[in-house]
Structure formats: structure tokens, C-alpha cells
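Entry 14. Ran structure prediction on the chain below.
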Amino acid sequence: MTEQPPFDPYALLVALDRERVSYVVVGGFARVVHGSGETTASLDVVPSLREENLRRLARAFEQLEAPVTVEQLASAEPITASTRAGELRIVPTPWGTGGYDDLRRRAVRENLGQGVRPAVASVVDCVRMLEASEREVDADHLLRLRRMMELEHQLVPQRGLGIDI
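Output, C-alpha cells:
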């Protein structure tokens, strides 16, 4: 049994950014960025499926020493690759979404430090993906994410439309 390389999300994100790949971070890593208490050992991304973007994505996989081809990426099937920086999962159309163009509208650029600012799926979209999942483990993630949204709603004062004098 081969040992999995240590998970280094910075190395994965830098490789994607170096090749100018258009993508949105989803899954457990997106939820962690939003403040979820869970842990994850992989990075899930939804790339733009445009041909040039898939070529850039294949070059990023080359940098990460993972043998993924443009043809595999164009198949629109999820791909999980073990790279020198850990597991990178390509999810063309996550549950409950229309894929990249759907998710990028509400995605937010998050400053993760070290010059890394990926587009991360919004909390609303993270909830939408979990709601569409049939995996038992996602039901717990969904409850926690909804609770986070409730707490944030309670803590952030509602802004009125009028002018306070």
C-alpha cells in the first residue's frame, strides 16, 4: 500500500493559479474556509469546461505530477487524482448545481494567505450541494452549515434602508 502525500492545499491552489485555471473551490475545503469545524484531506474544485481552460488544468496536473489528460477532463466525469501535494478532485457538475457558471456567480475570493485568493463557493451554494447529496455523512455537514448560517444571521445586525439620524 502506497502512502498518500501530505495534503498541501496551498501547493494545489498555486499550481491552478500559475496556469490561470478558472475554477471554484467546493466541498469540505470550501466549508472549512467558511468556518466549518470539520477537517479535510483533499481539495475539490469545479473548473470551467471550456477547452482552453481544460488544457490549462491538464498543465496544472503535470506540475503536480499527476497523469490527467485533457481527454479525461473533457469527459465531464468526476476525477480524483493523487498529486505530489495530496488529493485533487475535479467535480464538473456538483450535486444540485449547474456547474462552474452557476457557482461562480456567488463565489467569493477568499484571501487564504501566502498570496492565494481562490474563488470559493458561497455558503448558500455549499448548502445547496449538501441538500442534493444522498450521502449520510453530508446530512451532518448540512446541519452544521445551516446552524452556522443561523448564528451569523443573529450576529450581523440587519441593515435598514432608511437613513439613521
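The chain has one domain: 9-155. Will compare against last week's run tomorrow.
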